[in-house]
Amino acid sequence: QVQLVESGGGLVKPGGSLRLSCAASGFTFSDHHMSWIRQAPGKGLEWLSYISSSGSTKYYADSVRGRFTISRDNAKNSSYLQMSSLRAEDTAVYYCARGQYFFEHWGQGNLVIVSS
Amino acid sequence: EIVMTQSPATLSVSPGERATLSCRASQSVSSNLAWYQQKPGQAPRLLIYGASTRATGIPARFSGSGSGTEFTLTISSLQSEDFAVYYCQHYNNWPQTFGQGTKVEIK
After folding, report:
1. Of A14, B55, B76, B88, which cross-links B61 as Cys (Cβ 3.0–4.6 Å)?
2. Touching check for A42 and chain B: CB below 8 Å?
3. Taking CB atoms and an 8 Å cutoff, what residues of chain A touch B23?
């Protein structure tokens, strides 16, 4: 079955960096677009970034453009979200999800806390 | 950016009753609208895409309707496992945006 497992979250100081990983299994990873979505504590969902199946096309939300970079390694069946210049308002659970438009498969989420 | 507005914020419903959730887009999103269910501590679960197509394994008591700017998610007879937060999401253009959610609670 489709499985997405995020890792790499944790506590980071404001201005710091973190790289989240999303390990995929149960499907042909290179055939599918991937996205990242986050949810601040007690808040709603915010789409962050998209990467095409080949990695050639990427989109970002305004809130993270220039600070976050999405990437993928199809040989490793993994997607990544490199986060830099982190702010307190980036504190959230970060989800990877399979898909470009709507998301039928999600990871379990990975908590990122930005605090001094 | 298209703003998605859901109403009501909280809906109190008795088990077995019908629940009707609304989602409005600030401009037309055609039928490019999805609905998700989220329970505490869990990832969202896709219920509906294309405004009215049920995702794989979603019970028939969930139905979606609407197009353009007005959308509705109907749960025909609420079961205990349906008490959760529901989000709508448009994917008509970038950036995709979500509504703020409707919490369906037990009356």
Report:
1. B76
2. no
3. none
